[in-house]
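Support reply, case 0932

Customer input (verbatim):
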Amino acid sequence: MKKKSLISMLATLSLVGVIMVGATLAYLTDKTDDVVNTFTIGKVDINLTEPNWKPEDGLDVEPGAEIAKDPTVTNTGKNDAFVAVKVTGMDAMAVVGFEADVNEGWVLVDETGAVVEGWDGSLVDGIYAYAKNALAKDEASVPLFNEVRFTDNGVYNQNFTINEVPVDETDESAGTYFVIEGIDKTFETEEAAREYIAGLETLQETTSFDLVIKAFAIQTTGFEMVTENVYAWVAEFDFAE
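Our regenerated output:
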């Protein structure tokens, strides 16, 4: 009787042991629903338009003409953007009498984004940063300029004369410089003045000029609008392209 009870008790303890061992493998678990964070890549995109420009107005231009031309940059992308514009061809046009005034909101800068000192606000070859603000989605800039005027400075019919001018009339040792009558420019040597005239004479035979304008844009994140008259984001553009 005692032997049977002992066997029953050992069997019971063995069963309990199995149950206890099994219980240690039954971990408490739980899980949450997925938290989905979606990231989309933004897009910087711009259009360069000239709402009032009519190509036919640029043909056979006569002195005194005022030609509507208003390059405007519009942000057509999803993200805010800083914009700049590169102009080429205006310097050659200016020599024969074309001129234009840059609108407020644009600043002439060099390729590092530093503001060009001494700029008088006239349109010249170079880089212009839009300094008014970053363009938001669907926002348009102020036009770079509104019109081009042909004032005719007489370069086509002018016979150029070089004059030597003393640097200091009271001091002969101060040396001289050279000027061309009718041209607001000075030259250190007569040879330099003659080379410039040669270029003007070539322009006298020119009847067609190309004014080229190209716009650039960059995201605003990571850049400031302006720091100490330097628009640093301009340096990120490849203006040679």
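We compared this against your earlier run and they match. Two observations from our side: Helices lie at 2-23, 90-95, 190-204. The longest strand covers residues 81-88. Please reopen the case if you see a mismatch on your end.
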